[in-house]
TrEMBL record:
Protein name: histidine kinase
Transmembrane feature ranges: 14-37, 153-171
Catalyzed reactions: ATP + protein L-histidine = ADP + protein N-phospho-L-histidine
EC number, as in UniProt: 2.7.13.3
Annotated InterPro entries: BphY/WalK/GraS-like, HATPase_C_sf, HATPase_dom, His_kinase_dom, HisK_dim/P_dom, HisK_dim/P_sf, Sig_transdc_His_kin-like_C
Subcellular location as annotated: Membrane
Length: 411
């Protein structure tokens, strides 16, 4: 019925696109979070280094101008390790081999002035280095804890990204399926519509061709001899013309983009329609009654569509009502809507068939053996009209007791 390959490819593209878009957004968000906490973490570390630097330079202001004796390592209040070097040799700080634990002094020239981060001996360091003449001041802080926390943050963000992508994938798959369901249903309906229309058109055409072929094979026959066949041809031609007209109306309603609203007298419109249908009903020994309970007979709506809707419902009521039956057309109103009731005491509709009566070309199985003309398109047109007018239509029916159509149109 439907090209599954096209639908499946569309689903896959949408799922991949949605997942990639959300993944990129989450990646950008994760980079922002990481950058924010990275800067926040090292900003505090750097503040501590500069505070220690200010404190040391104040205390050793004179010593920077004159040689100082070697001393012990100086540890600041936040675990800062301070060295003063002269010409690359430690004159204040560690005097033993443990100095290489902090930073190998053959690495000295590789550390630039300013703030530098490096790793040595499995540990992470953040260093502030300042050189003044032949003296160099180095303040070092072990940042293993900070680096560990940032690594944990990266781990959490990666786990969060993978879980989010999984959730996004499943959600995207579900939403894509839901969003494509109306398209798939519309496609299926279109295919069914073409098949049903072809079937409905094929039957009268087949009858017309068979009767005409029979007439052609009997050239000696007169018009009187072939009157029965010609009557059947005329009947099927009328049926074909009505079916084509209904299909055009249905297509027009499906493609509608505007509603031509105007103020008109609803009671006069109903009376105008009933003039012709009362004559038809009387010929079939049926009665059509009209009752209006409107306080304001003028309404603002699309007159032609209301007329078309009433014709469909009244025509159906007369068609499916037995001789000596009764059809009632009732107008009323509520606070927000105009209510139209088309009621008959005809053959009725089975309860399990009510849900299908608005489907295109649907006809009850109980009617197929009866000589009741109809294409099964009328109520589909009525449903589409109501939808375009933003109204509502409901049906109540009992078999062999009658059917009532309730139409509500917003004021």
């Amino acid at each position: 019925m439907i090209n599954k390959n096209i639908l499946d490819k569309t689903k896959k593209k949408l799922i991949i696109l949605n997942t990639l878009v959300v993944g990129v957004l989450f990646l950008i968000f994760s980079m922002f979070i990481y950058g924010y906490f990275y800067n926040l973490t090292y900003k505090e570390v750097d503040k501590g280094l500069y505070r220690q630097f200010d404190m040391i330079t104040k205390k050793t202001k004179e010593e920077f101008r004159y040689p100082i004796k070697s001393g012990n390592m100086a540890i600041g209040p936040q675990g800062h390790i301070t060295y003063i070097l002269k010409n690359g040799k430690v004159v204040y700080g560690y005097e033993n081999d443990r100095a290489n634990y902090i930073r190998p002094y053959e690495y000295y020239d590789k550390v630039k002035n300013g703030i530098t981060s490096y790793k040595y001996g499995g540990h992470n360091f953040r260093e502030l280095k300042q050189t003044q003449g032949e003296y160099t001041l180095e303040i070092i802080k072990v940042v293993d804890v900070e680096v560990g926390l940032l690594k944990q943050l990266v781990f959490v963000l990666l786990i969060g990204m993978m879980l989010s992508l999984g959730v996004v994938y499943l959600t995207s798959r579900f939403l894509t399926q839901k969003s494509l369901e109306p398209i798939e249903a519309s496609w299926e309906n279109q295919v069914l519509f073409v098949q049903d229309a072809s079937h409905e058109l094929r039957t009268p055409l087949a009858i017309i061709f068979s009767k005409i072929e029979g007439i052609i094979k009997r050239p000696e026959s007169t018009v009187d001899d072939e009157m029965k066949n010609l009557t059947i041809v005329m009947k099927e031609a009328r049926r074909l013309r009505k079916l084509v007209s209904d299909l055009l109306k249905l297509t027009k309603e499906d493609a509608i983009v505007t509603i031509n609203k105007s103020t008109f007298n609803l009671e006069e419109l109903v009376k105008e329609i009933l003039v012709d249908y009362r004559d038809i009903a009387s010929l079939q020994d049926k009665v059509v009654n009209f009752n209006s309970k409107l306080r304001n007979i003028n309404i603002y709506c699309d007159r032609e569509k209301i007329k078309q809707l009433l014709i469909i419902l009244i025509d159906n009521a007369i068609k499916y009502t037995n001789p000596e039956g009764r059809i009632d057309v009732i107008l009323s109103e509520s606070m927000h809507s105009i209510n139209i009731i088309i009621k008959d005491n005809g053959i009725g509709i089975k309860e399990d068939e009510i849900k299908n009566i608005f489907n295109r070309f649907y006809r009850s199985n109980s009617l197929r053996g009866k000589d009741i003309e109809g294409s099964g398109v009328g109520l589909s047109i009525a449903k589409t009209i109501i939808s375009n007018l933003r109204g509502n239509i409901e049906v109540e029916s009992k078999i062999r007791e009658g059917t009532s159509f309730y139409v509500n149109i917003p004021k």
